[in-house]
Every structure is written in C-alpha cells, then in structure tokens.
Amino acid sequence: MAQVANETTASGAPASVNEHPSRDKSNVWALALGSVGVVYGDIGTSPLYAFRVAVAAAVENGPLTRDIVLGVLSLILWALIVVVAIKYVLILLRADNSGEGGTLSLTALATRAFGRRTAVVFLLGVVGASMFLGDAVITPAISVLSAVEGLTLVTPAFDHYIAPLTVAILLGLFAGQSRGTARVASFFAPIMVVWFVAIAAAGIFHIRDDPGVLAAINPAYAVAFVYTHGAIGLVTLGLVFLVVTGAEALYADLGHFGRKAIRTAWFSLVLPALLLNYFGQGAKVLADPAAIENPFYRLVPEALLLPMVVLATAATVIASQAVITGAYSLVRQAIQLGLLPRLAILHTSESQAGQIYIPRVTGALLLGVLLLVGLFRTSTALASAYGIAVATTMVVDGLLGFIVIWKFWHWPLWRVALLIAPLVLVDLVFFSANLLKLFEGAWAPILFGASMVLLILTWRRGTHILARKTRRSEVPLDTLLASLRKHPPHIVPGTAVFLTSQPEFAPTALLHNLKHNKVLHERNVVLTIVTTDTPRVPDDDRVKITERSSHFSLMALKFGYMETPNVPKRLALRDDVDVFLLVAARPQTRHPFRYAALAGPFVHWLGKVGQRRHRFLSHSDRAGG
After folding, report:
1. How far apart are CA 416 and CA 506, in angstroms?
2. For the chain, counts of helices (H) and of strands (E)
3. What is the DSSP string of 194-236?
4. How far apart are the C-alpha atoms of 437 and 434, rounded to whole Å?
5. Residue 550, H or E segment
6. Where are the alpha helices (H) located in 288-358, listed in sequence order?
7. Are the beta carbons of 548 and 481 closer than 8 angstroms?
8. Fewest CB atoms less than 10 Å from the CB: which of 114, 119, 121, 320?
9. Which element (helix H / strand E) includes 496?
C-alpha cells in the first residue's frame, strides 16, 4: 500500500518561470558557478578527443587538407549552437515539470496535454529514459579512462596501471555521492572554472597561428564537407556528435540548479571556452599538420604539459558527475510516475529540493561502470559505444518537445513545425551516424537500454495485476458510507486509523475489518500522508481534516521533505487508537509461464528491493518517496 503522495505542479505556458523558491536573483550566480562543476563536466571535456578523432576519421588514409579542418570545425561550431544552445538551453529548459527537467518531465507534460496516457508518448518516454541511464553508465567509464590514459603522455610507465587506477578513482567518485550535490559542486566548480579558463587561453594563444580558421564560422563549410565526403562524412558526423554529449544531462539536471543558473553558465563561460579551444586546435593543425596526433596537448607549452594533464585528469573525472546527478533526477521522476519501484531518496540540501542522493542507483551505476571498464579496457574501444544512447535520448526529447509545445503551450502547428522539425532532423542525422558503430560497441548501451525498457514494462504490468486484485474488494468511500447509514454495524469505542494513498476509495483494511470483525469503531480516520516540495511544513498547515460523517473523517497529514514523518507523534496516538495496515496479496494464476504470471512475483521482488528500513509508521530521516 502506498502511503506517500507527492504534491506536484506543472509549468504552464513557455513564459512561466517555475524555479524553486530559493532561486532568486541573489544566488543565480552562485548556482551558475555550482552548475559549472556538475552540469558541464561532460560537454566541457570533449575538446580532449572530439576534434582529433573527427579529423582522423575524415582524413582516413588520405592527406590532411584545409577543407577537412574547416569542415569539421564548422560542424562542431553549429552542432554546439543548434543542439545545445538553441534546442536545450533556449527551448527545452523552459519545458519544466515542477522545476524538474529531463525526458520523463517531457513525458508527463505531453501526457497531461493529451489528457490521458497514450501508447506513443509512454513508449517514447520509456525509451528515452532508459537510454539516458545507459549513457549514465558509459560516461563515467570513458571519462575516467581517457583521463588516466592521458598520464601516459608524461611517461609510458603508467601504461600498466591504467585499469587499477581507473577503478580506484571510480570507487572514490561514487563514494562521494552521499555527501550531496551541493557539496560536490562546491568542490568541483572551482576546478572546472580553472579548466574552462585554461582551455580558452590555450585556444586564443594559437588562433593566431592561422587566423583564417575563423572562416569555419560559415556553415557552408559544414554542408560542403558532408556533401562531398559521402559515407566518410557520415562517419565523421557521428564522431563530431561527441562534442554535444552532455547536453541531455544539462536538461536532466535542471532541478538541481535551475534554468537561469544553467543558462548563465553556458553563455558566459562554457560555450566561449569550448569554441576558442576548438578553433585554436584547428589553427594549430593548419599551421602544423603533425599536431593532429594530439592537437589538444599541442596547444600547451611543454613546461605546462604535466600541470595540464593533471588538470585534464581532474576535469574528466568530474565529467561523470553530470550524468550521475541527472540519473538521480530521472529515477526519482520514474518512481513518482510509477515506472519503477520506490527507492530510498535522501535529500542533501535544506534549500534545494532537487538535490538528492539515491543509494541503490549509485550502487547499480557503479557496478555497470566497472563492468564496462573490465570489458572494453580502453577509452578508444569505449568510444564506439559512446554516442548512440545520447543520440536516442535527444531524438526522443525532440519529439516529446514538439508535442509539449504544440499541445501544452498551445502553439499553432505550423509554428511548432517551423521551430522543432529542423532540430529533430538534426537529431535523426546524428542518430543515423551513430548507428554505423553498432557492431563496434554501440550494442552495449542499446542492450542496457532494452533491459531497462523490459524492467519498466514488467513493473508496470505487475503493479497493474496487483492493483486489479486489490480493487476487486474496494468500493468508493461515499458508497460505503451510504451503506453503513442504512445498515449500521456494531459500534465499538475507540479510534481506528486507516492509511491510504487514495482517500476517495474505502481502504481495503477497513473493509476487511467490517467483514471479519463485524464492528465499526466510534471514530474512523482515513489518513493520507503527503510529502511536500518544501523542507518543512508549518504546524498550522500540518493537518487538514474533512468530516464525512459522524463516524468518518478524512485527514491529510503533510510533511516537508527534510522532516521525519513520525505519524504516531503527530496524531498523538493513545492506547485506544488502532492503526490498520494491509499488504496487497500476491496474485495467483493457473498459467505459470505467461508473462502476466511472471510479472506478479517479479513486482513483489522489486518492491522488496525498493523498501527501506523504517520504524512502525515512521519513515527514515531525510528520505522522500
């Protein structure tokens, strides 16, 4: 029986600003600084490898030409502008659900726009969310591997210690998640600010090697490159896509920092630093084609090479933080939407409701990351798997965004098509390019995503089976009250409390009490526990009571997300108060090998996984859900 109902509200028109109350003008810059350390780690470290691998794919076995360099640079520039700046930062960040972003927020808004759950929207949401979780497993593995491998540039002696050192760093990274997003951001943000300033300075210094590289601003170079290179151009496009990986985490992390802070950080620091570094690499390669071996580190003077390797190592470790925190937000939304079993959700900040930590998700991600490191062992091998999960999520976000803007924001269809259709087309092109790497490693995130889809569908099917069985014995509360007035049972002294998440129905425990004990208490309270999105609830707003009859009352008991919901204390229960709980029965079937038969036992096992230790009628401290 679900005992907790979450209060949520949706953002309305695109002009609405649905931020958490604490996010006012006074702390936007502070949150923007924190977002640099959490949100932009993934996309901010792409200069280490994206330009190099894209140019290498374009050259193949031929000569390195000026048109190739300018074409790849133009693709990178416009990918950052179209996919990240326009689609995510300017458009989708406005489509928040109670301040939260991500694929499932779009799914909820699209469902609300239609007024009902549709199969297409539901499947889009499930696929997008599942592939995002697949990216959350791959990003830490490839980021940390590429960071540690960078140490071999200083001395080859590190070559045999790559895997052990990678595992050690990953264990430390995941162990630190319990300290909370705010504390992680305060530690990571200064490092990432130094990183962005450093790569921007390195780029500016070398743009003067060939100022003509700025001609790549013209999108004609990008179009000409793809048109003239055929299949090689498509392969290159799939590698250019590496520069935008992390944009989906930017949207999913909306609840942690807010729209204004994320936009401020992007336009004031992150985007300028990325563009300056990419153009610096391009100018360096045009002036010295041999620099294509590692154009990023060739921008750095030899005396500063070791410090830059150390800084890059720290930055790429931080890169995995964006998808980890995004995974927390996504899993919490999935739980609220009934797509996954309830898990312990720990809130790590009294001022930011979106800053959470989910222990079981952390353990699952760590296990998946370590398996990938053991299976692929190098970042080069993992690069083939990287991208398809992000590309799939971006396509889903684009399609759901189309529905939300059209139906929820009530834009004319032609206007929505003019705005979103080109963005979805770009996403589809990138998706097609990444599919070319299916047998080289892209199968890994697809397999993981398919497993998550199966898990979600099985959980939904199993919960429906249990709900149908429970509903067979439930009746509307008004119907029961009318029946009791006509045929009153024996009344006994005392107060009975029945917990339920749906007060409009008579709790099953109440019906069983009437059926088996054939008595009704003098006072009966149908209790619903509500977890609000504020840290604490004032005592004056704690309890809401609605009298339904001389013997029945409806009570809503509210708790803030930072409070311990101690129900007996708040109700001041005495010895004459009885509390009734009922656990849903396990469904039986005569067809043991049918999918429905498997879903019931499976959902019971998942429910046990999602349970957390609690005292009688008292939830764990600082836990929600």
Report:
1. 45
2. 24, 9
3. HHHHHHHHHHHHHHTT-GGGGGGGSTHHHHHHHHHHHHHHHHH
4. 6
5. none
6. 295-298, 305-336
7. yes
8. 119
9. strand 490-499
The single-letter DSSP state of residue 36 is H
Say whether 308 sits in a helix, a strand or coil. helix
8 A C-beta contact, residue 329 and residue 255: yes
CA-based radius of gyration for the chain: 27
Tokens read off for 311: 């800084």
Q: How many CB atoms lie within 10 A of CB 179?
A: 13
Tracing tokens 């009859």 back to the chain, one arrives at 549
Burial class (CB in 10 A: 0-12, 13-18, 19+), 341: buried
Q: How far apart are CA 13 and CA 563, in angstroms?
A: 32
End-to-end CA distance of the chain: 13
- Residue 445 CB coordination number (10 Å): 27
Which of 88, 97, 95 has the alpha carbon at shortest distance from 6?
97
> pLDDT means per 10 residues in the chain (625 residues)?
36 41 61 83 86 86 88 95 93 81 82 82 88 83 76 70 84 79 69 94 92 94 89 85 84 79 92 96 92 87 84 82 76 76 71 68 87 80 77 90 90 92 91 82 83 88 78 76 86 85 80 83 86 66 84 83 62 55 40 42 47 38 36
Per-residue pLDDT at 278: 96
517-531 burial, b for 16+ CB within 10 Å, e for fewer? eeebbebbbbbbbbb
**CA–CA gap between residue 423 and residue 546 (Å, rounded):** 50
Strand 577-580 with 490-499, pairing: parallel
- Cα–chain center distance at 336: 14
User: In Å, how far are 438, 459, 572 from 454, measured between CA atoms?
Assistant: 20, 8, 45
Q: Tokens 């927020």 label which residue?
A: 105
Token pair belonging to 345: 């959700």
Q: How far apart are CA 75 and CA 512, in angstroms?
A: 67
DSSP element (H, E) containing 508: helix 508-512
* Residue (of 27, 31, 25, 72) closest to 53 by Cα position: 72
Helix (H) or strand (E) holding 121: helix 119-149
> In angstroms, rounded to a whole number, what is the distance separating the alpha carbons of residues 322 and 138?
12
* Amino acid at the residue 292: I
The tokens describing 445, both together, are 């995130």
Q: How distant is the alpha carbon of residue 231 from its chain centre?
A: 33
Closest CA to 237 of 472, 436, 463, 443: 436
102 DSSP assignment? S
| Contact (CB, 8 A) for 432 and 237 | no
- Which token pair is 309? 């390797």
C-alpha to C-alpha distances, 614 to 177, 469, 534, 583, nearest whole angstrom? 23, 27, 22, 16
Quote the pLDDT of residue 624.
37
Q: Cβ distance 455 to 484 under 8 Å?
A: no
